[in-house]
Design a protein that fits this description.
The structure holds two protein chains of two kinds. Chain A is mainly α. Chain A contains 14 helices and no strands. In chain A, helix 10 (258-277) packs antiparallel against helix 11. Classes of the chains: A mainly alpha, B alpha+beta. The A-B interface holds A 75-77, 79, 87, 90-91, 94-95, 98, 102, 106-107, 122, 126, 129-130, 133-142, 149, 153, 156-157, 160-161, 184-185, 187-188 and B 1-2, 4-5, 8-9, 11-13, 15-16, 19-20, 23, 48-49, 73-74, 110-111, 195-200, 202-203, 229, 231-233.
Chain lengths: 407, 243
């Protein structure tokens, strides 16, 4: 790995570690100096001009602001500029952003981070341009086509350049399209429509997650896997969380959306099949795939078997089921996060664990059950798990003759 | 890398240009028709920079047209149109299949509802008779004294019995008198969407359209593709083009 990809905290740790290596006689002091100096240039740059990530963040925020500005400019529909003038502004600003972005990132390579953000700006203007054109020409035939074309237009660019920002933008566009298109097909009742959306997005979240995992195991796609995994798992857990509440746990979907379920499930299954061909499957991939497959199966079954229309009666059994399922999902994710040393999983798992505990504590539903008992039993199980894991860890460390400090 | 990047950017340019070309081709080759708009709840009329539009053909009285078929939500339908003497178009029939040799517009069913229509004959204090068609009419019998509130076009906004305790304020024209006749007919109303229900106007212009539409006739020019899909090409308020 090049030094440019490491951060300052790594250097500090490295300096401390290198000291210990010298003491243990693993490396000589000269070797230590060479290793440390390899990273010192970056440290100096970070200290004087701020970390590289800060530059990326600033540039991306700048691009988003300019993009939003262009969209607002579009929305206010300035009246003084003729039709061709408006089109000219859109096309020229889009081409200029892409052109300068490519130049700074690849041709001259002098400002790669700013260049990448300018390319993101080009993609934002592409979307804004689409909305402007539909407004100038009064094209109101089918609104969902807008975000669909935006997402499909940006996605190939994201793959070509390997930009997470472009992939994230395309995924968000396609998720917006999914909601708008599905809303077009479901009943007019807003409450019922909201419940149907939860299931649809849950399925979509699982599919995104699955696609992300497939990307992670293919070396050429690994760099752009995180938007899929993070957005996918967040959506999956948000959907699962909503289903644990009384008002959502009544009914699980609508069979009028079968074509969406079919398409999304097909994409997910394709990603699962692709994982079988990967040579670099990650630890714990089997239970992970199985878990996601079971989850997809459950949501699909409940969505497609429920009759269209508002629910007839409350279903406490279904709600209890969703609550148990959600708890299992959380623990599965946290365990996977530790096994694979993937902090995003642990963070997402802990976040939803906290949200779940808060929700269940204030939940009216649990008045029916001995709530205190639920928390005590749950807590004791976790403690027991902790004791078992700690004993195992001690045994493993003891076999290497390593003593661990407390805390 | 460079050539692939240029290719993908050009593809985006092509998408944008394609939208423009598609619309221009549609307008150039389509048939232009004029549609009358129907009153909209004023709270919904103006949203952002869009004028929300409803048409006379948005609600179709199936019984009146003699259509026996029942329609499902989201079903695609073809509404056969006929020209009126004032050169606007009205619905004469609805079908699921493409009507051959007739002029038609394509739409999607929102829902079908059984409903009632009322015709009320009111004799005012100067003994003049006024036929009125309120959207709903109840708790009133022949011989009652009733006050109607009408908009500029004579549509009933609300009504109340003169003896009633609660008398809603009338923002339009009041008409008082004795109810001479009440005629209630049952009907099946088909609500249809054509994808031409909103029109983008310049900032601030929407309110102007909103405030003057009660006084003046609002008509919409639509270009129809061969398959009956419509696209708005112009808006006329009292015969003047809205830009």
């Amino acid at each position: 790995m090049s030094p440019g990809r490491e951060d300052i905290s790594f250097q500090r740790r490295l300096e401390k570690e290198a000291e210990i290596w010298v003491e243990e006689g693993l490396i000589s002091p000269i070797q230590r100096d060479r290793i440390v100096s390899r990273y010192r240039v970056l440290k100096e740059a970070d200290e004087k001009a701020g970390p590289g990530k800060l530059i990326t963040t600033l540039s991306i925020l700048g691009s988003i602001l300019v993009g939003v500005g262009v969209i607002l400019f579009v929305a206010s529909n300035w009246s003084l500029i003729p039709k061709w003038g408006k089109l000219g502004i859109i096309f020229s600003s889009m081409m200029a952003s892409y052109g300068f972005g490519f130049y700074f990132r690849y041709e001259k390579a002098s400002y790669p981070r700013v260049g990448a953000s300018l390319i993101l700006l080009g993609s934002l203007i592409f979307g804004a341009g689409m909305f402007l054109i539909t407004q100038i020409y009064h094209i109101t035939v089918h609104y969902p086509n807008g975000p669909l074309m935006w997402g499909l237009g940006v996605l190939p660019l994201g793959y070509l350049l390997g930009f997470k920002s472009l992939i994230s933008l395309a995924i968000l566009d396609l998720l917006i399209w999914l909601g708008m298109e599905a809303r077009f097909w479901i009943s007019h009742s807003s409450y019922y429509g909201m419940m149907t959306m939860v299931n649809l997005y849950l399925i979509a979240g699982i599919a995104l997650w699955g696609i992300g995992l497939m990307h992670r195991e293919w070396r050429s796609l690994r760099a752009i896997s995180s938007p899929y995994i993070i957005l996918g798992s967040l959506i999956t857990f948000s959907g699962g969380y909503l289903l644990t509440f009384e008002f959502f746990g009544l009914l699980a979907g609508s069979n009028t959306l079968w074509m969406f379920y079919t398409g999304i499930t097909a994409l997910f299954l394709l990603s699962v099949v692709m994982r079988f061909f990967s040579k670099e499957r990650e630890k714990g991939w089997g239970p992970e795939v199985l878990g996601l497959l079971i989850l997809t199966g459950i949501v699909l079954y409940l969505s497609l078997s429920s009759p269209p229309g508002p629910p007839k009666a409350s279903r406490p059994d279904l709600r209890l089921f969703f609550n148990i399922l959600f708890a299992l999902e959380i623990f599965g994710l946290i365990i996977l996060g530790f096994v694979r040393r993937y902090p995003a999983y642990v963070n997402i798992g802990v976040l939803f664990f906290a949200l779940d505990v808060i929700a269940r504590y204030f939940d009216l539903f649990w008045k029916l059950l001995p709530r205190s008992l639920f928390f005590i039993v749950g807590g004791l199980l976790l403690l027991l798990g902790g004791i078992m894991l700690e004993r195992k860890r001690r045994r493993v460390l003891a076999s290497f003759n390593i003593e661990e400090a407390d805390g | 890398m460079r050539s692939k990047f240029i290719l993908l950017v050009l593809l985006q340019v092509a998408v944008l240009s394609g939208i423009i070309a598609y619309r221009q081709y549609w307008v150039a080759t389509g048939e232009r028709i004029l549609l009358k708009t129907a009153p909209v709840d004023p709270r919904d009329l103006f949203r952002g920079d869009y004028v929300n539009l409803r048409y006379d053909i948005s609600t179709i009285d199936l019984e009146k047209l003699g259509v026996k078929e029942r329609f499902q939500e989201r079903e695609r339908v073809y509404v056969v149109l006929e020209r009126n003497p004032d050169s606007t178009f009205d619905a004469t029939s609805v079908s699921r299949v493409l009507p051959a040799g007739k002029r038609f517009i394509q739409g999607r069913v929102q829902y079908e509802r059984a409903g009632s229509k009322w015709k009320v004959l009111l004799r005012d204090d100067s003994e003049n008779l006024h036929p009125l068609t309120p959207q709903w009419f109840s708790n009133v019998k022949k011989g009652d004294r009733v006050s109607f509130c009408l908009d500029e076009r004579g549509q009933v906004l609300n009504f109340f019995k003169e003896e009633a305790e609660y008398k809603p304020k009338c923002r339009g024209r009041s008409l008082n008198g004795i109810v001479e006749e009440i005629e209630k007919t049952e009907s099946r109303i088909l609500h249809v969407e054509y994808g031409i229900e909103s029109y983008f106007v310049e900032e601030g212009k929407g309110r102007a359209v909103e405030s003057s539409r009660g006084k003046e006739d609002l008509r919409v020019e639509v270009s129809l593709r061969k398959d009956g899909k419509g696209i708005i090409t112009a808006l006329f308020l009292g015969g003047r083009l809205v830009r």
